[in-house]
Amino acid sequence: MNAFEYAAPRTLDEALAVLGEHGDEARVIAGGTALVTMMRQRLVRPSYLVSLREIAGLDRIEAANGGLRLGALATHREVETSPRVRERLPVLAETFRRVASVRIRHMATVGGALAHADPNQDPPVTLIALGARVEIRGASGRRELPLEEFFRDYYESALEPGEVVTGVVVPSLPAASGAAYVKFLPRTADDYATVAVAATVSLEPDGERCRTARIALGSVGVTPIRARAAEALLAGQRVGADLLRAAGESVRGAVDPLSDHRGSAAYKREMAAVMAGRALTQAWDAARASVRGTR
Amino acid sequence: MNRKIRLTVNGTARAVEIPTYRTLLDCLRNDLGLTGSKEGCGVGVCGACTVLLDGKMISSCIALAVSADGHEITTIEGLAGDERLHPVQQAFIDAGGFQCGICTPGQVVSAKALLDAIPNPSDAEIREWMLGNLCRCTGYYKIIESIRAAAQPSRA
Question: What backbone torsions phi and psi does residue A209 show, to the nearest 5 degrees?
Fold first, then answer.
């Protein structure tokens, strides 16, 4: 690893000031699982590290506008095991549970994972399907944007130099909704997905037709991808097995996978269609079950 | 760019001056002489470097020592008492939970963390918790048996 200066300020304002002073030379560190690994591999050589670990309150998981707000410094394990997350958005707890190993989940943070902008990660997929928004702070103030607009390219986010992710706000699902996360990984359980899909389905008040669906995919492009064509096929429709399968098939047009040791691009495209169909079917079934449960 | 940091390691206060880029694993092994924790993969996957930071297991090979300033570390050296092994260590011996031994410190520390969090885990919970600790001798069944034995109250 290269030599660097290290600061662990106690307040966010102090951290932003240090970042502003050092510009591109500085990197933010939280859990360190991504950054230290990249530094050990000499992929990045920052001359200044600003740790957010000593800033109190950045790790809160709290209720917000009927949904949830995950503080940037909350660990994956904290989200996975949070009673509040498990009760309100079990699909999100389950998604965080699928990341790497318990040991890594003790270290890796919500905000660090987003800022890393690795398209193979699990949480962004489900967060996008849930309509999450990311909170960003910089010297000039606070801004918020839909998470799907945050990811710009391979390991590239919308963060400007000097900005940090402070949290992510996740709306709750409407009544009569279902959600699912399907991680296809034919290798070991702690691996990145070969293809990952998250889907949410909300029903019309009649409980028979789909009002809206959202579907997002990971590991099939340079960023997580939202499949709007598939969503449009389902909106307003009386949904059956054929339509769910057709919606799954339609994601072929949205994905642009890279060939790697987890599979060829063609194979991943095939699996994206299959797994999207499965995720939508699970979300649809869960939505229907939630209607039956209340009648 | 050296830093003086203070750690509580296995219950003892230690102060050490290190370069900022020192990993926690290298600090423990080279600066503090605690060579029980091993470096396997060096990228947080294999679990040989597992230690507890404030009671939670982490990969010390991808943790910066400066980030642990002011915190408590437990390593494999801190598990046994003066006279007797930790129940997890004894169970690994009794049930044959190791072969070549390189992964063993990490396996034992992870298993201790598991039993601290879930005193009587199911086999599924043992497997999920331990999946980040690789054994290239592939002695996984004996490792699971060891943890199961350590969890039995009669042995504790």
Answer: -110, 155
